[in-house]
User: What shape does this take?
Amino acid sequence: MLRYPLLHPPLLQALATAGHGSKVLLADANYAHRTNVHHRAELIHLNLRPGLVAVDEVLEPVLSAIPVEAVHTMRPDDEDAGTPEVWADYERVLGPDLPLQPLGRHEFYAACRSPELAVCVATGDGRLYANVLLTVGFVV
Assistant: This one.
């Protein structure tokens, strides 16, 4: 029995095998979990039903398990639309030391299809632009 905030065995294994520079995608329910990820990336399904589990609910325990050096989000195509509301939740969880770095949609997809993507966590988060791409840091 673990006394640890993250208990999901397949996710723990996938994160344990990801090293410095690896990417971890926490994907919303609208994301193409099979076609917009690298074919070698581990796919972890947490999308039990729409709205369950949300990306920020996965983000918190993942941050307790791995060091993170960068966080990328998917920028809306319409730049006049403003900042997605969900980003405020991520900023609260991440704190000031890990600022969000938005990428255009196609740049974000390209980053997720790269060989550096080690893990894709499919969530049931229905909020728009709720995808988060973490870059694994190093242990000091």
The domain at 9-136 is CATH 3.40.1650.10 (RbsD-like fold). The two ends are 27 Å apart (CA to CA). The chain has a mean pLDDT of 95.
